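Per reviewer request, we include the raw input and output of the structure prediction for the construct analysed in the revised manuscript.
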Amino acid sequence: MYKYVFPLALSFIVFGIVQAPYSKAQNADSAAIMKEINALKRSYEARLNALENRISVLNQQSKATKIKTSVKGTSIRKIKNNSFNPSIGIVLNGKLADYSKTSSEIAGFGVAHEGERGREGLGIGETELNFSANADDKFYGSMTAAIVREDGSDKIELEEAYLETLPGLGLARGLRLKAGRAFWSIGYLNEIHAHADDFADRPLPYRAYLNKAYNDDGAQLSLVLPTDQYLEVGTGIFRGEDFPFGSTTSGRSAHSGYIRTGGDIGSGSSWRLGLSTLIGTTDGRTSNEDTVTFVGDSNIYAVDGRVILRPKGNSKNEIILQGEYFRRDEDGQYTDTENSATSVNFDGTSHGYYAQAVLKTSPRWRIGARYSKLSPADVPAGLVGTALDPSGHDPVTYSLMADWTNSEYGRLRLQYNHEEFSQNDADNQLILQYVVSIGAHGAHPF
């Protein structure tokens, strides 16, 4: 047995001598591999921690965005899709008005009902009900009904009901057709609903020339040209039943045309300039409580301009400068049935304009001032002493306003007007207004 011990021991000694260098090399390789693994582990752990921190920051920002109320004192939400199918919205518009005069007539002008001064005391203005949606990829439709109080009773008036083509119809790029009843592209304010104005009432030219706004039945074709600077042209044909026309036998007696351009000024400011015309013939327009009638041609030409200045590059502080000039040429016959049943030939030109400035002092507060004026045409002898006789006076209005916008859904406004519509006869007015929007409401033009 002992003879096998010595060879076996020798074998172990030889094996150990041979294996020792190999084990040391293997241990060195293993240590290097473990070192690389640990380095990778630390790198991935660092990246994972950074990713988790980034996700945490994004979640916090998302929560803050949801909680924070967006305040945009001069913007309206843009909804023009099928998200609500259709989009439905309500606009509530109420006023408290106090006047120093019991009546107010604009000397030298036959003004229709909507262009007259509003009711004194507590009252609900126009309550609007809006429906709009994309019918499909080719047409967009919209309807706006206004519930108003007239002569002691509530009435529903259809302000807008139109369809508009979408790019899916395949028309030329930038070409758009709009048909139905709408506030058409005449001047600047005409396309905008009154509740979106910067003041509680419309300036004098809109009240005298367009009965606050022109929304006849008709169709309008517009084209945005493929130029570096924004440039749009358009033309329309209308029935001719809305003021300043009022009656038509052909059903297509009014026409319009316009061109507008605009662009950016620096990083946050912008401007717009437009020229437009509305021409037509009336078979019998009535105004001034249906005592003044006009038959003939009535043509309106307008120039509008608007500039938004944002010194800091955002909408928290901004200045809005806006103005429009109107000229009206009329050729026909005027009759004032209250003073004379005799028709008098009339061929005259009148002018009107307004200029306003609105300063946004903070995200919620704005102040503004507006001046508007009318220059009546000279009337023939047969109309002296009637509602159309200005007696050498140019009606003017001075307006000051301040409004508070808690969100884009609601606004409170206080406004003061000093009106001088006839010689040595002024009217001081104080108006408190609220405008609240519920649900969806489409965007208004820039």
